[in-house]
Design a protein that fits this description.
The structure is a homodimer.
Chain A lengths: L17 E6 L8 H20 L9 H13 L2 E2 H7 L4 H13 L3 E5 L7 E5 L1 H23 L3 H18 L2
Antiparallel strand pairs in A: 2-4, 3-4
Chain A binds a DNA duplex through helix 4.
DNA sequence: ACGATGTCGTTACCCTAGGTAATGACCTAT
DNA sequence: ATAGGTCATTACCTAGGGTAACGACATCGT
């Protein structure tokens, strides 16, 4: 079993110029308080819009997120997975149970600690991640392909910043 | 009753240079397909993280989103509100009912079409929007204040792009 | 060595919030 | 006038958050 070396975080370095962009924003929209409101609404609306594009999938958003975490970060316990996803352990336990029932995740007992069970993604699970990732990203990738390359770079940099904010 | 002139969309104009930023991204992360995966994960994770900061609120995420839409865009029907929020009419009808029960939204019959009811935000609703916006944004605004100004500009531009994607 | 305490995972149950189906009220077009 | 379309609501299902409680196991203190 190999795990994707998926690393959205890029190393930070100062004074990188961004080439050109197709949008301008007033300086007032860059102040923390107004930006917080705009960004919150935009992220919420984008999440809802993305949800529309998962109709024919066999796996839910939550299940995919957990499975992708196992694919990206390797085996871990239920509690660690819950912390990674910022949810409580009981709901994560239920999500994991669904993935185990589907044969996408395997439970292995920790030899040194009988309380813990280590969760690993199965080959079927990894196949599902790759296929689901491709299918789910299709719509968004199409929208992104229609953007100016400079706008895609804006979003790529914003992705790093959003990840940084989400993990703080 | 006055409505906030809240306009996250900035007019588009080409060839605007972005000053400096504290992050770099590899060119591969700017291609549509990889960026779609990264961006989807980042937006999903950011949404979950933001949800952690609403503990003591009296109003739910969904209710606030609907109320804010009425505050920002003015009176509209239940169906129009559902379309704006990308949900079906029945769930929106239920959300509206909760807001009416709380006295934050008022139903007015359309004088020319007995089927329709026009929803308007009340003074109490507008107060609630302003207070909730301030309270909910506090955490995010603090995170944003810690960023480099150039990074905030990246996020402000990304906000416009996300709104554009969400409404496409 | 053994009991008290703490931790991991699960189950049970509540709530919010998506979805579809069906219905009633009303409008519109033939 | 009536048939069909539209708006809003209600009823019901499912997913997925939360807390409480419990069993199994580990660890620590005496």
């Amino acid at each position: 079993m190999t795990y994707d070396t998926y690393m959205p975080h890029a190393p930070a370095s100062r004074d990188e110029p961004v080439p050109r962009a197709t949008t301008t924003v007033p300086a007032s929209a860059c102040r923390p308080a107004p930006l917080a409101g705009d960004l919150r609404v935009a992220v919420t609306r984008a999440t809802r819009r993305l949800r529309l594009e998962r109709s024919s999938d066999q796996i839910t958003d939550t299940q995919y997120a957990a499975l992708a975490a196992l694919a990206n970060r390797g085996p871990m316990t239920t509690t660690a997975l819950a912390e990674d996803q910022h949810v409580q352990t009981p709901p994560m336990s239920r999500t994991v149970a669904a993935l185990v029932d589907s044969g996408l995740v395997r439970r292995d007992e920790d030899p040194t600690d009988g309380r813990q069970t280590v969760l690993s993604i199965t080959d079927a699970g990894m196949t599902e991640v790759k296929e689901t990732r491709r299918r789910r990203n299709a719509w968004l990738a199409q929208r992104l392909a229609e953007l100016d390359p400079a706008d895609r770079e804006i979003l790529a940099r914003a992705t790093v910043l959003l990840e940084r904010i989400a993990t703080s």
